[in-house]
Each structure stands twice: as C-alpha cells, then as structure tokens.
C-alpha cells in the first residue's frame, strides 16, 4: 500500500510540517515551489483557491503525483501545502485513472489549509487515502505534467515552467 504524505504549512502549526515524504523529494520540490509557485498562491489572488495537480517523472523529482495548494502557518506566513505519493511509474493516464483519489487529496488539503486539522489530523486522514490500485499504461512522464480538476494535463519543463504556469495562474487577476 502506497500512502500519501505532505509538506508545507498548516494554520494549526507554527512552521513547516512534513510527514511521509522523503527528503530526496522534499528538498528539490521545496526549492522548485519556492521559485515558481509561492508568489502565485498569494493572498487575495484568484489562484489562492486553486489546487494544482501534478505528475513528476524521473527528470523532475519523481515519480511522484499529488496536489499542491495555497496554505499558511499559524502566524499567517504563506507557503503551499503539497500532498503526494510515489506511484510505481509516472504515466500520463494517472491524471484520469486516479482522478477520484486526487479529488480526495484536494478535499483533505483544503480542510487542513482551512485550519480544520493539524499535522497529526491530516496524517490520520491520509491513511484512509492510499494510492489507488491502478494499472497505469499511458505514455511515460519524464519531466512534469500539471493540471487542475477543470482542465487537462499539460507537459511542463520544470526548468522553464513560466509559460505553462501562466495557463493556470493568469497574471493580474484578483479575487472579487
């Protein structure tokens, strides 16, 4: 059984929290989201409520799949929350075959980022959400694929993701 873990900030916690994810994933992922996503999940932006789904291949910290969304710690310092698991292979059809599981991860992450549970509560909830027993047989994802529950996955160069990220985070849009 492959259980998801998490990394990021939670309102019920004082600072960064990590459970169930390896340091070999968290280190490079932390640097990537700090560089490319933290400013996009800013308070007051349309994207503050967006959950971005991802598949990471072996050339981009993977195999790993999951969701990343806006969150903050108890002091209000913003940093995205990632909930993810390491599938046996990174394949394009994970986006459709694991859609219900990814939706459940989003719901758990939203509850946690809304302050409804702390790190222990989120870890306990994720025990009931193991990676689904699917047979992924689509094209391999070598680098990165991103999508949301409302749009299809697109391939992304993790070294130069800006044009792809603008697809999900239109600049200049404010919540209202």
From TrEMBL:
Keywords: Plasmid. It holds the Pfam family TagF_N. This is Type VI secretion system-associated protein. It comes from Rhizobium gallicum bv. gallicum R602sp.
């Amino acid at each position: 059984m492959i259980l998801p873990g998490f990394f990021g900030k939670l309102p019920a916690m004082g600072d960064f929290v990590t459970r169930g994810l390896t340091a070999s994933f968290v280190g490079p992922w932390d640097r990537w989201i700090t560089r490319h996503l933290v400013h996009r999940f800013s308070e007051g932006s349309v994207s503050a409520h967006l959950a971005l789904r991802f598949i990471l291949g072996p050339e981009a910290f993977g195999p790993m799949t999951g969701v990343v969304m806006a969150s903050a710690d108890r002091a209000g310092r913003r940093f995205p929350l990632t909930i993810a698991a390491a599938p046996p292979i990174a394949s394009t059809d994970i986006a459709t075959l694991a859609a219900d599981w990814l939706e459940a991860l989003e719901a758990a992450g939203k509850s946690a980022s809304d302050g409804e549970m702390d790190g222990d509560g989120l870890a306990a909830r994720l025990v009931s959400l193991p990676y689904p027993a699917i047979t992924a047989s689509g094209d391999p994802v070598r680098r990165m694929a991103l999508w949301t529950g409302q749009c299809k996955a697109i391939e992304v160069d993790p070294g130069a993701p800006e044009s792809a990220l603008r697809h999900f985070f239109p600049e200049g849009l404010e919540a209202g």
